[in-house]
Amino acid sequence: MFNFIKNFRKDEDGAVTVDWVVLTAAIVALAVVAFDTIGGNARTLIGQAATSVGEEAGL
Question: CA angle, corner 10, sides to 19 and 15, nearest 5?
Fold first, then answer.
């Protein structure tokens, strides 16, 4: 039993998995924030373009 505990303490496979999960979650969160920011700015730009075109066309 003591050998099992000693080996379990030295095993680092789980720690690597946790690192990858945290890294992947951070990348996904960054992608969501970037997508939201780009999407919001694109909607604003399209709205401004539509307003400008409407004014030029006399609508």
Answer: 10
d(CA 34, CA 28): 10
Q: What is the pTM of this model?
A: 0.57
Q: pLDDT tens, 1-55? A: 778 877 777 776 677 788 889 999 999 999 999 999 999 999 999 999 999 998 8
Q: What angle do CA 28, 46, 39 make, to 5 degrees?
A: 5
DSSP, res 11 = -
- Given the structure tokens 């939201």, which residue do they identify? 36
